[in-house]
Amino acid sequence: MSSTAQIGVTGLAVMGSNLARNFARNGFSVAVHNRTAAKTTALVEEFGHEGTFIAAESAKEFVDALERPRRLIVMVKAGEPTDAVIREFAPLLEPGDVIIDGGNAHFEDTRRREKELREQGIHFVGAGISGGEEGALLGPSIMPGGSAESYASLGPMLEKIAAKASDGTPCVSHVGPDGAGHFVKMVHNGIEYADMQLIAEAYHLLREVAGYSPAKIAETFRAWNRGRLDSYLIEITAEVLAHTDAATGRPFVDVVADAAEQKGTGRWTVQIALDLGVPVSGIAEAVFARSVSGHGELRTASRGLAGPAAEPLSAQAADAFAAQVEQALYASKIVSYTQGFHQILAGSEEYGWGVDPGAVASLWRGGCIIRAAFLDRIRTAYDAQPDLPSLLADAGFAQEIGAAQDDWREVLVAAVRHGIPAPAFAASLAYYDALRAERLPAALTQGQRDFFGAHTYRRTDREGSFHTLWSGDRSEIRTA
Hints:
- This protein is 55% helix and 10% strand.
- The chain has 20 helices and ten strands.
- The strands form two sheets. It has a seven-stranded mixed beta sheet, with helices on both faces. Strands 8-9-10 form a three-stranded antiparallel beta sheet.
- Helix 5 links the parallel strand 5 and strand 6.
- Helix 13 runs antiparallel to helix 19.
- It is globular and about 80 Å long.
């Protein structure tokens, strides 16, 4: 088989097939391979008119079809299936060739694989790809990590197939070494969890407190999407809420079981945040909200518990409340991005990646699930001040969240009065209040730790670590 393919894709489920088609549509010759040869044949037969595909039945045929340096994209399930594919193909490759993992891999696995393959002279790129099936075909946001040399070979191709922001910039850039790309994709998904939960809480409040119908809420979200909340998730939320179930004639949202599933990246975000000591409370509450929704027996057993009997709102009051919900949603959304970028920067420091937060905001402006108009402002904030400690320290965001905070608080008061759970809204406001507080009760917590475990404490009036010898009414302070 002649070495004419510029890039190859192995693993031809929907994401892999659509990615291969995207390359072909953009003028690249693409070698395609799947463990089940029938999928390879079906792809070429159905979509061969879209560009140049080279079908390969065996691993050797696939590798032989690729021009040097070979660029091989793996689109299989994360974990052992990815390792199995690497074990199959790596012996057939030569120094300088590139393996790209386009799945949702754990970044630590990517770091391990990159190190192992680097020792063989093979480049390994962990590329986070966001945008789902449609994005893979029409243009995703791509977050590649790996060596600068591998990006020099691969980058121009990725830039051609990636989504384009409104200014025409490709939504892809070299994120950093080894696992940086998959780490950033993980945090992207964590923010996605938070964003979706915040939107769900806004819907719940508009439904149960304002008394809006799903169709009315869809109109509300459409109006919000024409303003500062302009984003892909707000857009599709309006579509989902406006949809009528064909079988029953009822609002679609009323016939869907209220148990949300998850694939793991949100959990990873929270777990790694704990390891790094980074507070991502809004993201964590979003993960826990999905978990609560799935415990059907627990919810059934608890359904008879007492709750408040709040008065319904008048039409005028409901509309005023909806405006407050918009403020709370926007403020909480800023917090979720603040927490996510904090985690990215903490991970970058921990692993020496040198991730540029402005560049990350830029590549999220199109193609990905969390694409939103205000990512331009986040990029501008980090470009203007690369060492910005928090998005809340940016003057523009600080002013907006300050203007929203009274309504934000009133929304949570209404949620409590009506017995509507709003954990992500509440966690986001608590985070905001914790950061702006002059003093936190952690002083008492540290005193307790010193009392029962001699864990020592620091003082506000002098340097050093101290321990108090606690004994009845008397105590003695000693330098630790």
